[in-house]
Amino acid sequence: MPEPGWIDEIFDGVRYGLEGHVISEQQSPFQRVSIIESKRYGKGLLLDGCWMTAEHQERHYHESLVHPALCGAEAIERVLVIGGGDGGTARECLRHSGVQELHMVEIDGLVVELSQQHLPSLGGGCWTDPRFQLTVGDGIAFAANAADASYNVVIVDGSDPAGPAEGLFNRAFFENCRRILKPGGVFATQSESPEAFRKVHIDTVKLLREVFGYADPMYGWVPMYPSGWWSWTFAAVDGPRYRQAKPERVASIAAGCEIWSDRWQRGAFDAIPANIERALNS
Ligand code: SPD
Asked: How far is CA 12 from the centre of its chain?
C-alpha cells in the first residue's frame, strides 16, 4: 500500500486537502481522473486535481442539487442529468417514484467506469435501474439537439467552469435548457462557491435570471470544496416553484436524507450572504 500523505486541491492560494493515498490515476481524453482513499471521508474522486466527491461526504452535495428541483417541479416523469458521472445525482433522482425516465449524459466514460469500480455506493442501484439511460457524450450538444419541452427537470452536475465543463455556464447552453423544459419544469445546477468563486457564482445566478425569469441560489456546505461553502441554483419560467416543495414528495424521501429536508431547504435559500444579495440586485 502506498505511503499515506496529503491530497490537495490548490486553488487561489489555498490548499483543500485530505489525508490519504491515490488508488488509481488515469488520463482520459478530457481530464486526469484520480480515485483516492482518504482517512476521514472514504474513497473519493478528483478531476484534474479538483475535488468532486467522496463516499462519506457526498450526501451534502447530491441531496442539495436534486431535491429542491424534484420536489418543486409540476411533474417529474422525465429527468435529464448532464454530467454526474459518479452516479450520485442519478441515485437521488431515482429515489422519487414519480421519475419514469432518467437520461444521464456524461462526457467522460472513464469517470463512470472508475466510479462504478471504486465508488459503488455513489450510484447505488442507478446503473441497473430500468428507468436509467446513460449516454457517454457531450451534454451541451445533447441539450442543443433535444426536442422542445421534452424534460420536466434538467439538472447540471458538472465540474468547475474550466476544461470540459466551461460550456455548462454560458447563455447558449442555458437557453437550450430552458427550451427543452416542459411547462412547470425546473432547472438546477451546481453554481460554485459564493466565497472562492464569487464572480462565477454571481454571474451564473444573474444569467439564469435573465434566461429563465426566475432563479435563486441555495447555500450549503461541501467541506472538501474550495472554502467549503457551496451553492446550487434553481431556475424556472413560471415562478420560483423550486422553493415550494410538494408535501407528498417530501414525505416520500425525507426519512432517507441526511442533510436535505423541507425545513433545511427553506433555511438554505434564505441563507444568502448579504454581499451576494446586494450584488445580485445591483
Ligand atoms: N469544485 C467542485 C465542483 C464539482 C461539482 N460536481 C461534483 C460532482 C459530484 N457528482
From this structure: 22
CA-nearest of 95, 178, 182 to 143 is 178
pLDDT of residue 3: 63
Whole-prediction pTM = 0.97
- DSSP of 38-79: ETTTEEEEEETTEEEEETTTHHHHHHHHHHHHHHHSS--SEE
Judge whether 152 and 184 are in contact, CB under 8 Å. Answer: yes
pLDDT, mean of residues 58-68: 97
24 dihedral zone (left: phi>0; alpha: psi -120 to 50; beta): beta
For range 43-51, the mean pLDDT: 97
Selecting among 86, 108, 157, 216, the annotated active-site residue is 157
Q: Please give the Cα distance from 86 to 170 (Å, whole number).
A: 23
Q: How remote is the CA of residue 217 from the centroid of ligand 1, in Å?
A: 16
The bridge status of strand 181-190 relative to strand 229-236 is: antiparallel
CA–centroid distance for 82 within its chain: 9
* Nearest CA, atom 7, ligand 1: 52
Residue 238 a catalytic site member: no
Which residue lies with its CA nearest to atom 10 of ligand 1?
A: 84
